[in-house]
Amino acid sequence: MVLLEGKEDSTSASMRESAEVLTETLDSLTARFVSPPGSGFGGANPPVSSRLWRVYSSLQTSRDAPTEAQMLRLERAETELGDAVDEFNRVLGEDVARFRALTAEAGVDLLPEQGSLDIDWKGTGGQP
Fold this sequence. Notes:
Blueprint: H1 10-33, H2 48-59, H3 68-105
Helix pairs in contact: 1-3, 2-3
């Protein structure tokens, strides 16, 4: 963290360590949603966006009703998306909140408050 460069006190060390742990957690969480740049489109354990794209592409190949296999893939992708959203909300509500509290104690406001994600979101013109 640039704000803490050169500071060796225990508060700075704790914030630096917490920031590193949170960064690793967020990187891992991001990988559940999207592929890292330059990693291709999925691999052995593709992210949710790849799974959803594959289902969407499959459904677009025909004007016929979706097949049982397509519906099963869609159901699996939706379940995986729900699980990823739940994990995102847990990280936001616990890990990010803990880091936000730590930085607030030190008088540093790094992360604005954010709302949770909802898989059943319906278009609201950008309003929560």
